[in-house]
Structure formats: structure tokens, C-alpha cells
Specification:
This protein is about 20% helix and about 20% strand. The chain has about 325 residues and is of the alpha+beta class. Strands 3, 4, 7, 8, 9, 11 and 12 form a 7-stranded mixed sheet that branches. It has a 5-stranded mixed sheet with strand order 2-1-10-5-6.
Length: about 325
């Protein structure tokens, strides 16, 4: 194979250095140069400076929509969607959008470890460059019995699994959100089992529907939706859709999710949508379509049975629906 090699000094620093080291070096150099010059001006903390860099993904949009995934309802109004969120790191109400703006999105290093050929760390922008990007329209059904319909931008989780090169003993994928109680006031509430964790079987993770979203509504993901990387598994209740992911661990142990750790009687590993199995405290038979004056019957697997029902054959003894 012919590879065009440029000499080191011809390559911009951004290309020569892995992204996460590049951002860290910028932060260090920023402080170092000022100190060397003897400047006594107050300067922002390094973390603040790098967070102010422009989002390098913004020119990727709009992404081409994959027309295979269609909706049976209108797309939820973007403003409503961006102001009605569950993100316990920033508080337990739905109105956390303002607080979530404290989250710094660069540098954002993703760790891939556990049962893989080679554990590694990769910056979010280096990862995105390697992934096939597209837009998909997905339904979203929260365990609280409300729903939305969202245009996500991102790439199939199966592509990340391929990139990670799991070993044959890997049966599950455990995902972890960021941990930083200095910016996330909810993480100072120590009775929650931080960091937020969720898991899938490898068969679920490589199902064509499992999607890692980096954007929504044709632009980079708003922080309150779980920027810069969040899971969308539309046949499962919303709590499986882990936000602001920093770590993917391949394992032979079934991961215990945040909500399962907190309230095992109410929330389990599988969390597939089934209108016939009520939550211990309320019915799951119908859902409120957010933004519309409408309640609709909820569908088995949230309407995605043709894609995923086969994954659960032979698992009738499991608690598949909580
Ligand atoms: N991920 C993290 N890290 N923290 C959370 O509190 N809440 C979950 C899920 N992912 C949550 C999370 C729940 S309960 C739901 S319904 C969805 O995010 C909400 O996603 P949305 O705010 O984009 O609608």
C-alpha cells in the first residue's frame, strides 16, 4: 500500500499529536508561555481555555439521513426536547439545561478497555473521524411513560465495537458517563451510585439499531442531551440511553446500571419496552407524546420488534421488561 508521508514539521500539530494529548498540551503551553513571558495578567484556568475552543464537529452537519428508519409520529419540537431532560448529574428535575452548560466538552477522552485486543484512549474528534456518520429518526420512550421523536446524528455502536476489537470472551459492553462533581452538582449527592453506568449484551450492542449519537436536529448535540457522545437504543426505556460517555469496557460480567444499583426492584438490566408489563408503580400501556395533546398505546419493543425480538429468544426466564 502506498502511504504519502510528510515530514514532521510539515504536519500541523493537530494531525501529528493524538487529539487528547494535543488539547492537554495546548492547555499546558497556554499557561507555560504566559509564565515564561513573566505576564502577571490573570488568565483563565487551563480547563476553561480549552473548553472555549470552537466545536470541531460543527461543519459536519447536516448529515445524510438514513431513510430506513421512519417515524409514525411527528418529530418533537426541538425547543421542547432541549428543555425537558433527564440528566441526574445536573439535578433530578427536567429543567437542567442551564446547569448542563457547565459541562466542558473538549478535551473529551474516551477509554476503551477490558476484554479487547489492546486497551486504548482516543479523543472524541479522532473517534468521530473514523466513524461512518448519518442521521436517523428514532422514537424515544421513557420509563416515566412519556415519549419523543428525535433526529439523531451519529454512527452505529457496532462500528465502535469493531474498532475496539473485543476478545472472544467479551459478552457485555459496560458504558460509563463522566465523573466530575466540580461541574455536575448532582454528583455531589453521594447517595447516587456515580458514575452513571449502563450495559448491553454484545449482541444488543452490535444490533443495527444501537446508535451512538453526537448530534441532534442537524447540529452538534446540546449538552443537556448528553454531548458529546450518547447512546440511543430505541427499543429500550430511556434510562438505558446513557449520556456523555467516557468509557467502554468489554467484559464477561453483566454490568449493573445506575438505576438497577439504586432501585433493583424497579429497574433491571434489560429494560425492553413492553406495554403489558407495568412498572411496579404505574402502567406502561400508553405514553404521553411530549408537545402533542395526545396519548397513544405503547408498542412492544417501542415498535422495533422486527429488528430486535430475535435477540431475546430463549431468555423467557429473564426479567426482560423492567
Ligand atoms: N445518562 C446520564 N448520564 N444521566 C442520566 O440521568 N438519564 C436517562 C438517560 N441517560 C440519564 C442518562 C433517562 S432516565 C432518560 S429518559 C434519558 O437519558 C433522557 O434523555 P433526554 O434528556 O435526551 O430526553
Amino acid at each position: 500500500m502506498h502511504v504519502l508521508r510528510r515530514r514532521g514539521w510539515e504536519i500541523p500539530e493537530r494531525l501529528a499529536t493524538p487529539e487528547h494529548l494535543f488539547f492537554n498540551r495546548r492547555a499546558v503551553l497556554g499557561g507555560g508561555v504566559a509564565a515564561a513571558a513573566g505576564l502577571l495578567l490573570p488568565s483563565p484556568a487551563p480547563a476553561q481555555r480549552v473548553a472555549d475552543l470552537p466545536d470541531p464537529t460543527k461543519d459536519l452537519y447536516p448529515l445524510k439521513r438514513n431513510e430506513k428508519y421512519t417515524l409514525d409520529r411527528p418529530i418533537t419540537d426541538e425547543k421542547l426536547n432541549a428543555s425537558y431532560n433527564n440528566f441526574y448529574e445536573f439535578g433530578s428535575s427536567k429543567l437542567i439545561a442551564k446547569q448542563a452548560q457547565a459541562l466542558k466538552l473538549r478535551p473529551w477522552v474516551i477509554k476503551i478497555d477490558g476484554l479487547v485486543e489492546k486497551p486504548r484512549e482516543i479523543g472524541i474528534d479522532d473517534l468521530i473521524k473514523r466513524m461512518p456518520l448519518e442521521e436517523r429518526l428514532y422514537r424515544h420512550r421513557c420509563v416515566e411513560a412519556w415519549s419523543m421523536a428525535i433526529p439523531w446524528s451519529g454512527f452505529p455502536l457496532a462500528e465502535l465495537v469493531k474498532f475496539a476489537e473485543p476478545l472472544s470472551g467479551a459478552k457485555y459492553l459496560r458504558m460509563e458517563s463522566f465523573l466530575d462533581s466540580a461541574v455536575a452538582s448532582g454528583q455531589r449527592q453521594t447517595w447516587y451510585p456515580w458514575p452513571y453506568v449502563e450495559g448491553l449484551t454484545l449482541a444488543e450492542a452490535t444490533n443495527e439499531l444501537a446508535f451512538l449519537a453526537i448530534g441532534a436536529y442537524g447540529h452538534p448535540m446540546p449538552k443537556q442531551h448528553g454531548a458529546p457522545l450518547r447512546l440511543a437504543v430505541p427499543w429500550k426505556y430511556g434510562f438505558k440511553h446513557i449520556k456523555s460517555i467516557t468509557r467502554f469496557t468489554f467484559t464477561d460480567q453483566r454490568p449493573k446500571g445506575f438505576w438497577e444499583a439504586l432501585q433493583p426492584a424497579e429497574y433491571g438490566f434489560w429494560a425492553n419496552v413492553n406495554p403489558e408489563v407495568p412498572h411496579p408503580r404505574w402502567s406502561q400501556a400508553t405514553e404521553q407524546l411530549i408537545g402533542l395533546d395526545e396519548r397513544r398505546p405503547t408498542l412492544l419493543f417501542n415498535g422495533y420488534a422486527e429488528y430486535v425480538a430475535h435477540l431475546y429468544k430463549g431468555l423467557e426466564g429473564e426479567r426482560l421488561w423492567a
